[in-house]
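User: Run a structure prediction on this.
Assistant: Running it now.
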Amino acid sequence: MMQGRITVTQAGDLRVHTFTAPEKGWRVNSHIIELPSQLLVIDSQYLLPYAREVVSYCAELQKPIARLYITHYHPDHLLGSAAFSGPIYALSEVATKIDAVGDRVALEEHEKFGDDVPTRVERPSCIVKPGADTIERIPFDFIHIEHAETQDALMVGLPGQGVLITQDLVYNGVHAMVGEKAFDTWDAALEDKKSLTYDKVLPGHGDPGGKELYEKMQRYLSTARDIYSQSRDGDEMKGKMIRAFPRHGGVGMLDQQKRFLFPSG
């Protein structure tokens, strides 16, 4: 039985299938863009069992996975890549980061989860150039976003369908990784993207939604910034964040970010 959950976004003749991992996998999303004769997968999951579920679901669609895009180097979007075959695409900045730190990240997470995480990372073999492109006559917009959750990340827009796959620019009902402490620039990026014409927003964690997700994310970041400034250590911040957002999932993210926010703790 599948442990993850599938949500289908219908946009004209195009469908995007969103696989959301269960709580153990931080409710991270892999988005499957179903084109006429092929599938494009955006991000590969954190743990291999859930990545294999994505691959199995794709097989049910009876179309090959032509490309796997990795939006940024964080382990929850990257480490499941070993379950996929075929070319891996990433921005040049993201590919460089994965090459530099990916194996270390894999080993750290392997120590926590054993064989549910590989001991080395799969490296991108194809570079994504930001800007407009067309795949199977479908227009795409590949957007390089900087200094939001992390320094460099990819968003994927389908302008003809009004769909924007934001990945970790936006979380929905899931605790966010604020370890890089880019509260102001992240907020500015959210404010900027509100003006885009996309009305369907597919986040990196949690359920798809609309433009209302930008303001929800801004409120979360404002609260996280205030709580961080008032907390002595990661455990105190975790407790306060859970009380502030009692219905949010992805509690493991609050543990993951402790060593970045409170390195001497």
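The chain has eight helices and twelve strands.
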